Amino acid sequence: MKPVPLSLRVNGEEQAISFAPYKTLLEVLREDLNLTGTKHGCELGECGACAVLIDGEPQLACLVLALECEGRSVETVEGLAGAVLHPLQAAFADLGAAQCGYCTPGILMTAKALLEKEKSPSKERIREAISGNLCRCTGYQQIVEAIEEAAQRLATGRRAE
Amino acid sequence: MKVLGKPRRRVDGRAKVTGQTRFADDIVLPRMLHMKLLRSPHAHALIEEIDVEKARACPGVHLVLTGKDFPITYGILPVTQDEYPLAPQHVRYVGDPVAAVVAKDEQTAAEALDLIAVKYQVLPTLSTPEEALETAEPRIHAYSERGNIHRLQAFEFAQKENGVDEALGKADHVFEDLFFYEGNTHLPIEQHATVAAVDPDGKLTLWSSTQVPHYVHRSLARVLQLPPARIRVIAAPNGGGFGGKCDVCNHEMVAGKAALMLGRPVKICLNREEVFYMHRGRHPVLMKFRTGVTKEGKLTGMHLQTLADGGAYGSYGVASTFYTGALQTVTYELPRYKFEAARVFTNKPPCGPKRGHGTPQPRFGQEIQLDKIAERIGMDPAELRLKNLVKANSLTANWLKVGSIGLEQCIREVVARSDWKKRFRKSGFGKGLGLACGSYLCGAGLPIYWNKMPQSGVQILLDRSGQVTVFCGATEIGQGSDDVLAAIVAEVLGIDPFDIRCVTGDTGITPVDLGSYSSRVTVMMGNAAIQAAEKLKKLIAEAAAEQLEVLPDKLTFSNGQVFFDGKALPFAEAVRAAEEKFGTLGAVGSYVPPRAPGRFKGAGVGPSPAYSYTACVVEAHVDPATGWISVPKIWIAHDIGRTINPVLARGQVEGSVYMGLSEALMEESAFRRLPPKLSSALVHKMPSLLEYKSLTSLDMPEVDTVLVEDPDPNCPFGAKEVGQGPLLPVMPAVANAIYDAVGVRIDELPITPDKVLKALQLKAAGKAPRVGPDRFPAVPYPEPLVVPPPWEGGDGKEIKRNDAAAVV
Predict the structure, then answer these.
(1) Is pLDDT of B806 > 50?
(2) Domain that holds residue A114
(3) Which domain holds residue B561?
(4) Both A29 and A56 in a single domain?
(5) pLDDT digits (tens, 9 = 90+) for B195-209
(6) Which of A63, A79, A95 is the endpoint of a domain?
(7) Cis peptide before B607, with omega less than 30 degrees from 0?
(8) How big is chain B by its Cα radius of gyration, in Å?
(9) Overall domain count for chain A
(10) Are strands B90-91 and B45-51 parallel, antiparallel or unpaired?
């Protein structure tokens, strides 16, 4: 199939690429933009591993055609940290929320979208927000605690590496 | 302790939260090609003809391989080398690979698969163990022990044959119960991926999502007929393993061959459906327990029979079968014990090891039966267990050596924290508490292939900059293998774990470690790491002592300093002094488990350097109108020996609780037959993450975790395993809690609302309020191998041979 051109903004950078038009956003991120931080566990919208933010909303990149993202803004795990970790990342690392780390990028992006809307969500709200992200390692408890901790760190402006 | 026991960010934590952990499918190499496998649509068939010409001619296709290209078999156990990378003639389950296409991209490879024409002669299929027992022909494997019975095992730990019947005869009560544990799968979120490449000097390098790079290395050498020195296997960090990446996989062998033939990198990543079919998950096991008990609540003996559905290949099955009976004795004292086991072949995806390997199934039965015993003799279930606990530093009837056992404290913790005494049998209809315990290995005592070499090796390199690099073949699968390695070396050398670089899971540059399975890593790698680090510490101390003018054995290594009595050297300067004195600094350490006391044939499965212990209380609420089960809270206490990193240890316990609860309530690898016009094939009922139910964040209860520390002298700083043991008591505790809530026994897993409702209806009709298996088929178990227990004058050898059990 003939490649098609596309312009989109990924992690704040303008990207102009061309790729086979059947490709999903997940494939374009991983294969054409070398952003392998976004993972896949099913490519059918079942596991949540590929969650990214599109215009600030969590979306499953495996169910979005890259062509639908013309002119839109996409955020992936690679965009979270600069010189220091995002408070969510620091809390995940400190509190055991990432074991194998495979579902982690998707959960981090989902949690980021939550914390941008709600400054201090309850445990129930957090559980609800990440209920589409499967994790086989943790039992979710340490993930929920890390998101709560990150909300606090964000509220107090505390940054941690 | 400066490092151990303190909550800490894991050393690879940053990589994991930034998405920089490089999993196998994240590896992209120049000129890389992509591979797909064609899999059998039939559960049992002979291949009459394969025509690959059209696929080969397809633009973008570089290579097509079939079974003809792979004349040599492999298999994880030396006794079951029964798999071909691509089946040359005989396919045994839906999903058995028959051909491979390598193409410029995945899409082209997938399209070319459709152009391969395979003509099959369909054979009758076996779907259940009962069918396998009754159907000797056609045989799924010619090597099976008898018809389609893969393996039979029988042991009687008594001074004479029928000694267990004698012990049961003397009991006040004999309980006979049947249980069934449905199979289920690992479901790691990462799908298996492999990249194979020919490196510049012509050798093969293979990156894979594997828990066992050493065994993949050995199998590649065998299948590809290459010297092992020309193959390097690198275990990429696994995106979850749980035993699902413990076996050697078809795609690893085929990718290796394709890369060598093409001289280009070849990648394959399985799709989710393929992961379900590759399986190697929990064996479905039917069990019959006969247990004797005195009216005072002392167990007099147990007779356990198991029947495991192995699926289509051997995999770890011979070991799994032994494990369905090996660990019944390490928790509660059993004066006499008889164990008979069988594994059969069926035309379903092969079963293998999943978290707890072969032991969750009998643990489910044993702990429910204890609950029934306690009720019948009018004793509290916690008291019954406490009364029968195995003693520390003792031998069991089947000659396993138990070291430390912190189970009493574990039971007391969960009983106190759950307010058990006030709530058990007193919570009112619909609400209940259930208790169960468990025990697990801290590493299998014997390696998979017989040898006397170390099961784990660690090498440490120091240089004048103070830099410490630790090499070990151990494999990071999420459990924190690298963190344990860094923490132990840091503790010995008195430095920060973040100042250590771990190089792990690479057969080309790290000493052999057998892999991440059987909960062996902390104990085996940890002991090897201590040995290596202590050697270096000695050299550094000698050199530093000269500089500081003190005696070497007076020096303390802590906080990045080497010091005594106000005199100190920074660690890096002490290393520099040692390099000046001794030359280049490096040391190795190795670990071989202690020899197990059992001397009978079959004594190789069950021994471990130490055993971990767990107790668990589950609270369950049952809606009698719908059978719906909710679990608001679980209390769990695990005897970990000593905690290396409490953050990770808690994560392992809670992850085990999660997986156990998910197995208890919903996970099942169930199969169905397609209608005859669709080939009658046996297909997975639910090969997707939506249909294969697992707990989400909304379903997971609050978990109250306690780590009990009863250090074991065989373990590094006393630290035992924590990755598998805590799963074991969860499933029976759920069943026992449901009984406490509504008075029905569900003696099979998973425990779904329909089963609870059915049992409630039976209860209302005045029938036995139980759902579970009601018959155990006739299994031709052989005459048992008779081994007297230590207290009946035994020396660990058998006094009567059973020929089947002799072939291990």
Answers:
(1) no
(2) 87-155
(3) 453-591
(4) yes
(5) 999 999 999 999 999
(6) A79
(7) no
(8) 27
(9) 2
(10) antiparallel
**Would B131 be classed as within a structural domain?**
no
The total domain count for chain B is 3
pLDDT tens digits for B335-345?
Answer: 999 999 999 99
pLDDT of residue B807: 45
Judged by CB atoms closer than 8 Å, whether chains meet at A94 and B187 is answered as no
Query: Closest to B190 (Cβ–Cβ): which among A37, A93, A102?
Result: A102
Listed in sequence order, the DSSP H helices in B46-87 are: 53-56
Angle of the B521-548 helix axis to the B481-493 helix axis, nearest 10: 30
Region B5-30: what's the mean pLDDT? 98
Distances (CA, A) of B557 to A151, B533, B560, B584: 39, 12, 7, 20
Question: Does residue B141 fall inside a structural domain?
Answer: no
Test A93 with B14 for CB contact under 8 angstroms.
yes
Q: Say whether both B313 and B179 belong to one domain.
A: yes
Q: State the DSSP code for B64.
A: E
User: What gap in Å lies between CA B366 and CA B378, rounded to an integer?
Assistant: 18
Option in A102, A128, A141 nearest B189 (CB): A102
pLDDT of residue B195: 98
Q: Do A68 and A14 fall into the same domain?
A: yes
Q: Tell me what the mean pLDDT of segment B563-574 comes to.
A: 97
pLDDT, mean of residues B121-147: 96
- pTM, to two decimals: 0.97
Kindly report, residue by residue over B216-231, the tens digit of the pLDDT.
Answer: 999 999 999 999 999 9
Domain boundary among A44, A79, A114: A79
DSSP assignment of chain A equals ---EEEEEEETTEEEEEEE-TT-BHHHIIIIIS--TTS--S-SSSSS-TTEEEETTEEEEGGGSBGGGGTT-EEE-GGGT-SSS--HHHHHHHHTT--SS-SSHHHHHHHHHHHHHH-SS--HHHHHHHTTTS--SSS-SHHHHHHHHHHHHHHHTT----
- Chain A closest-CA separation from residue B709 CA (Å): 20
- Do the domain assignments include residue A160? no
**Average pLDDT estimate for B544-573:** 97
Q: Are residues A69 and A11 in the same domain?
A: yes
Tokens of B342: 């069988």
- Do B439 and B329 contact (CB within 8 A), yes or no? no
Three-class DSSP category at B677: helix
User: Tell me: the pLDDT tens digits for B589-641?
Assistant: 999 999 999 999 999 999 999 999 999 999 999 999 999 999 999 999 999 99
pLDDT in tens, B271-305: 999 999 999 999 999 999 999 999 999 999 999 99
Q: What value does the mean pLDDT of chain B take?
A: 97
Q: Do A73 and A40 belong together in one domain?
A: yes
B377, B429: one domain: yes
DSSP helix/strand/coil, B302: strand
The answer to whether B661 and B631 are in contact (CB under 8 A) is yes
**What pLDDT is attached to residue A159?**
56
- Last-in-domain residue among B535, B565, B591: B591
A100:B477 CB<8 A:
yes
Whether residues B273 and B288 fall in one domain: no
Angstroms from B645 CA to nearest CA on chain A: 10
Q: B418 with B490, same domain?
A: no
Contact A82, A159 (CB under 8 A): no
Per-residue pLDDT at A160: 55
Contacts of A89 in chain B (CB under 8 A): 14, 17-18
Let me know whether B438 and B484 are in one domain.
no
User: Do residues A131 and A73 both lie within one domain?
Assistant: no
Inter-chain CB proximity A99 and B651 less than 8 Å: yes
Looking at residue B198, which CATH number applies to its domain?
3.90.1170.50
Q: What is the mean pLDDT of each run of 10 residues along chain A (161 residues)?
A: 93 96 97 97 96 98 97 97 95 98 98 97 98 98 98 82 52
Q: Let me know: does B193 contact B240? Beta carbons within 8 Å.
A: no
